[in-house]
Structures are given as structure tokens and as C-alpha cells.
Amino acid sequence: MHLRDLQKLEGVxxxxxxxxxxxxxxxxxxxxxxxxxxxSKSDDVENEILFGNNQDAALQINQKEVRWGLLExxxxxxxxxxxWTLKNLRLKVKKxxxxxxxxxxxxxxxxxxxxxxxxxxxxxxPSVSFYTFxxxxxxxxxxxxxxxxxxxxxxxxxxxxKVWDMSKIGQANVQGEHESSTKENVMGSDEGKRPYTLFxxxxxPVYSATFSPLxxxxxxxxxxxxxxxxxxKLNANLVCYKGHNYPVWDVQFSPVGHYFASxxxxxxxxxxxxxxxxxxxxxxxxxxxxxxxxxxxNCNYIATGSSDKxxxxxxxQSGECVRIFIGHxxxxxxxxxxxxxxxxxxxxxxGAIMMWDISSGRRVQPLMGxxxxxxxxxxxxxxxxxxxxxxxxxxxxxxxxxxxxxxKTEEIGKAxxxxxxxLLKTLPTKSTPVYNIRFSRRNLLFASGAxxx
Length: 453
Known about the structure:
This is Transcription initiation factor TFIID subunit 5. It contains eight helices and 27 strands.
């Protein structure tokens, strides 16, 4: 409307004023506006599913084939086979190929971790190492831990990323700050003694950070709608990925590296490659923010959790939605995939955790116990345990084997008792909400959070 029209409306103070000519003209000028205009038949079906008007349509979409089996000859599988088949614990190299010393050291490290892996179950629980951030002054938005637990990263509201090397904690000679620019920075003696490496480049708060499988790269997402790739070896920003139109809430590396996925306020998730600055796929379909994203174990699918209270599973090749998981009563904040690729866990704002069967798209079991937002989930390496971290300052361990069993009709009324049976252990922290949880290759459980007074 024009300013003059607005000024006329401000003069409407009593019912008698509505009888004036201008008010009558506004009342008679009516327009029919469609809140949602389906672009295709498939979109219409998905909208009906989300509002619960057509359960048959939901079942129809969930009938699509999902190949949840694992890929063959992955790096860890080759190395694990080498542990048992090669006497000298060395992988065979084709004639004429040169092997870098760095890759050999990485493979030896992974071999050592696989040899020393502890098989966890309901009777054998993992050892836990908790990293606590102090004096963050409510500025810590996210944290991430490398696969071996040697590096811990934190994303802050001042647009910075800080990375701590656990092997250098307490040492006098530690690495100083490094800017993303190529110009060398001149630092004072006090700045050079900081126990972390500072990465700067974002123009807004950092909302997510994730390490590559080998720990040599870090991805961060920010409110400035960009994703940045950092090198932990060069301590520098390598690439800035632009594509989202609004803040990016989450970013995750694929299990094999190189590819990654992002979730944004623009209601889309996107698939990227490290060597391309434009997204390879745009996954659109959610009716609200896409808050979290997680890769399937075989890298063929991506799961997204949204504020529209649903979880969707997408085919990476076609970009189509092949599963819609309905059951949460609040926004989904965390996702985790089982190592065998069969099950998925999702945590929401109300503290509920849902276990899903990916092949059928049905909910297997709810895990009730948290009283705050479930911010992080992680399966153990063999998939027998599920760890959850929440804003209620608790780390909980769940028996996935028992949780995967279908609930009998007579047990529905005993949901509280069954949840307690599946809950193996509760680990309280000292006023520290749990931001991130990760199982190492040795099945050690790493967790991190910021201490609040």
C-alpha cells in the first residue's frame, strides 16, 4: 500500500469509521490467495503426507527401494582384512606405484586402532573422555572432535573457529593464530602462547564444524550463508562455498571424504564436492528449516531433519526423496546412522529419540529419558550401542540391540519401563550441556560441551 492509504487506515479508531467510503472500498476488494501452490503431483502428495491427510500416500513413497547395504572394499574394510591376512601388516602395492609416507602413516594408525578396537555390548560399556570448554561466555555455538580424538574444534559467535591439538595441551610451545589471508601476521609474545589455532574468515556466527575422516580438513558453516574449507596442516582457508541464500545450520563430510552435505534456513539441503564451488545437488521438499544432515554409511543416501518435524531420506544420485519419517512432535536437531546402514536415530527438541528402520520407513522404538534438546547422537563402531548428548547436561548410553526389537501390543502400556531397560547408563556432567559426541575407531567415546555457571 501507499503511504497515503496507510495514513487513512490509521484514522480508523471506532466502528463508525468503518462506514466511510475508503473503508468500504477496502472491504469490498477481496483477493483469493493460495498459501501452497503444488508444482506437481508428487509435491501435492508430499504436502498431504506432512499434514497427515493421506497415510496411504506416505506408505506409497516409503515403498521405494532403498539399498542400505554397505559398500565393498572401503578403506577400513581393506585395512581390517589386512590385519588378519597379512603377516607383516602391510598392504600390497601395485608395481610401479609410489606411496607417500603420510598415507602410510595414516594407514598404520588406522590399522593400530582397528587391532585395539573394543567390542561393546550391554555388559561392556565404553570409556568416555569429555572435553569441557571454559570461559566461553555463551559464545560457543558448536564443537567437533576428530575421529581419533586428537583435535577438538569450536565454532563461536564472533565468527571464529578455534582448534585445539590435544597432544600440545599444557606445552609451552604451542601454535599461534593464523588468519585466512595469505599475508603473514605479526603477533606479540602473548598471542603466540595461545593453546589453540585461530581460523578467521566468516562474516557471522559459526553454527557447525566437522572434521574430514582423516582429520586433515575442517568444514564450517555460518550465518553468512557460506561454507568454508580449512586445512589443519596449512592452518589456512582453502575454499569458500557459496550457494545457500540464508544461514547454514549444519554441514557434514561423507564417510569417505571429498563430498559433503549442508542444511540451511532456506529449507534445502545441498550436496557438494571439495573440488567444485557450486553444489552438485539441491534437495528441496521440507516445509521449514533443514536443521541437521547426516550421510548414510554407504554414501548413497542423505538424511535431513527439519523444523517441520519430519526426517527425509534422499537418493544422492537422483536427488529424490525416497523416505519420509513421521513421528516427532518437535523440530529434529540430530541424526545418526548405524554402521550397518539398517537403522537411523533422530533426536528432537523435546528430548525424544526415535529409532527408524530405513528399509521399511517405520519407527522401531522411541527412547525416552532426556529432559532437554538432544543435540548429538552417535552409534558405536559395531552398532550395538547408541550414545546421546543433550542440553540437560547428560550423556546417555542405549542398548540398540534391545531397541531394534518391535514393541509388542501388551508392552505399549509399559513404555516407561521398557525405556529404562534399554537405557544402559546415564553419565551426568557438571553443568555442561553436551554439544558433540563421537566414537573413535577404537570405540572410545569422546564428548564435548561448554561449562555454564
